[in-house]
Every structure is written in structure tokens, then in C-alpha cells.
Specification:
The protein has 334 residues and is an alpha/beta fold. The chain contains six helices and 14 strands. Strand 9, helix 5 and strand 10 form a beta-alpha-beta unit. This is VWFA-related protein.
Length: 334
């Protein structure tokens, strides 16, 4: 499986935008910082900040949208129902008056349904929400290895399609994917050919680039709650967090939901039965953040990976943002 490569017209988009959430050690959002409080490292080398602005809430220049996605492909009917209840509880907060526009997506193996448009009216979203009937998984190979491959491919393709579609909309998007995640398809007994690794690498590059251009931070919320606490899924993804620089290092685990969430500047939220509170926690990160831009150094070869780290000068503060991007030589855009 390989996703479509990023469009050639964007191959040399050297201005990189970083949406940065800053927190203290207790997890509280920190506002009021200035450009001099930030340092950006590009492949461990200091990178000049080209522009900077602090954002508090949605503004005309910095619109923010929350996207709630119910995954009916990778979760059981019971888990989907539990996730739906949590979404409804979230939408009813404050009498249904939402801080930011919210849109909803239902992802099944037969289609991806986007409900109406984005709205701040939680009660109207609930009314549309209740019209949707959760679909039982109908993939003919829903069990075993081939069923896992089907779900993996369907999930990655759907995520990329969302990212490509959202590139047409300005501003930051917080995509909250309610699911335990799709299969890792990685492990000691999984051997990939060089061609399979090249295709995987192409998909990793395409998805990373699509999410970056769409300004999407992905948040993974496991509706299984404490039932999944301590399970390998809650920590195995950490083995794949390092950015992939070469095709020979590509594994399917690099495209797991939890890895993509972390690398996009979002979070992995699990082992908590209060799923509505987890949704609120993710959505709250739209309330205060910083927008930094940097100019990527010239790339020496196609799909050149750059690791990004943002540090805060004040002790005890942590920056949360995307962890890397792929660059291409300017000649590819000509």
C-alpha cells in the first residue's frame, strides 16, 4: 500500500509552520510567552524563527476547528457505542455552546460520512449525530492477518484523504480520532521486502506532508479506557516514534495511529474511562498556542527528513509540536 506522493507544486514549500502548545509540568496551558522564550532545533542545529505570534482562542487570522472522528473499523460495536456516549457528553457541555467549531466524521469500511459542516452549536450536532446508525464491520476478511491488512490500509487511506481535504481550509485543526488504533503489522516475524519498504516510506512521507500542510494535530483517544491499561498497545507505539529518514528503516508500525498522533504535535490518550474528559482535554489545546515559522535549509535529496525540536527557555515548561518534516530540493518544483 502506498499513498499518493505530495503534489509537485508543493515540493519546495520551504516555509514550515509549527503550531506549538506549551504546558507546565502539571499539564496546564501556558500563555504570555514571547519569541525570545523559544528556541528551535532543526536536526539538532539552531534554527532562526522567521515569524512568531501567540494565539488565544480563535481569531479571524488564526481559525481553529475541532474534528471528532468515530472509528467503526478498528473498534468493537460496544467500544463505538461508548465513544459515541462520550462525544454526546462533550457536546452537551456549557448547554451545547462550544468554544470552537466542531465537525464530525464517521469512518466505516463502506464509507466515510462527514456530518453537515462545522458548528459551535453542540445541540444541533447531537441531533445530526443521533441520525447516524453505527455500522457493524463488514470487511470480508475482518479476522486474521489479511483482515488486519485491510483495516490498516483503509485507515491510512482515510486519514490521508481527510488531511488532503482539510488543506483547502485555513487554520489549525485538532483531529480527535476515537479508536484503539489499527493493527501495527510489525514485529519479529514480519519481514518486508525492499519494495514493500519503499512503498511504506512513500506513504510515511505523503501522510506526514499532508498533515503538516493541513495544520492538523492528531489526537488518539482509546475508548477502551482502563480495560486496555497496561496492554501492549498503550506503549508498543513508542518503539516507532523516531522519524524515518530512509526507506530501509520503514516499518508498518511507523504508520500506527499513536505514532502519527505524537509526530503531528497531538497526544496519545488512553487508560482512562472518562473519555469525554479526554476529548475536552484535547480540544482545550486549541485555546492557547503559538505559531512559529521557520525556513527549511535546502534539501540535498528528495524526501529528506528533518527532525524538529522546540525548547522553552523558562525551566519547567514543555513544548508540544510536530517532531519532523520532509523536504525536497528546489529543482523538483521546476
Amino acid at each position: 500500500m502506498a499513498l499518493q506522493s505530495p503534489a509537485a507544486s508543493h515540493s519546495a514549500d520551504h516555509r514550515i509552520t509549527l503550531d506549538v502548545v506549551v504546558k507546565d509540568k502539571a499539564g496546564n496551558l501556558i500563555s504570555g510567552l514571547h519569541q525570545q522564550d523559544f528556541a528551535v532545533l532543526n536536526d539538532k542545529k539552531p534554527q532562526e524563527i522567521a515569524s512568531f505570534r501567540a494565539v488565544s482562542g480563535a481569531t479571524p487570522n488564526d481559525p481553529v476547528k475541532i474534528i471528532l472522528l468515530v472509528d467503526e473499523v478498528n473498534a468493537s460495536f460496544q467500544s463505538v457505542a461508548f465513544g459515541r456516549d462520550a462525544i454526546e457528553k462533550f457536546l452537551r457541555q456549557n448547554g451545547g455552546q462550544l468554544s470552537h467549531p466542531v465537525s464530525m466524521i464517521f469512518f466505516s469500511d463502506t464509507d466515510t460520512q462527514v456530518l453537515n459542516g462545522a458548528s459551535r452549536d453542540g445541540n444541533a450536532l447531537i441531533a445530526a449525530f443521533e441520525q447516524h446508525v453505527t455500522k457493524l464491520r463488514t470487511l470480508r476478511r475482518s479476522a486474521g492477518f489479511y483482515g488486519a491488512v485491510d483495516r490498516f490500509q483503509l485507515s491510512i487511506t482515510n486519514l490521508n484523504s481527510i488531511a488532503v481535504r482539510e488543506q483547502a481550509e485555513p487554520g489549525r485543526k485538532i483531529l480527535i480520532w476515537i479508536s484503539p488504533g489499527w493493527p501495527y503489522l510489525s514485529g519479529p516475524h514480519v519481514n518486508l521486502s525492499s519494495n514493500e519498504q519503499r512503498r511504506l516510506f512513500g506513504s510515511i512521507v505523503a501522510l506526514n506532508t499532508s498533515l503538516r500542510r493541513a495544520q492538523i494535530a492528531l489526537y488518539s483517544i482509546d475508548p477502551l479506557g482502563t480495560a486496555d491499561a497496561g496492554g501492549f498497545r498503550t506503549f508498543y507505539y513508542e518503539s516507532f516514534l523516531k522519524g524515518v529518514a530512509l526507506p530501509k528503516d520503514a516499518e508498518a508500525g511507523n504508520l500506527s495511529l499513536q505514532v502519527i498522533a505524537t509526530q503531528s504535535g497531538g497526544r496519545v490518550l488512553n487508560s482512562n474511562n472518562d473519555v469525554a474528559a479526554l476529548i475536552s482535554s484535547a480540544a482545550a489545546e486549541a485555546n492557547s498556542y503559538y505559531v512559529l515559522t521557520i525556513d527549511s535549509p535546502p534539501a540535498e535529496h528528495p524526501d529528506e527528513y528533518h527532525a524538529i525540536q522546540v525548547k522553552i527557555e523558562q525551566p519547567g515548561l514543555i513544548a508540544q509540536t510536530r517532531t519532523g518534516y520532509y523536504a525536497n530540493p528546489s529543482s523538483l518544483a521546476q
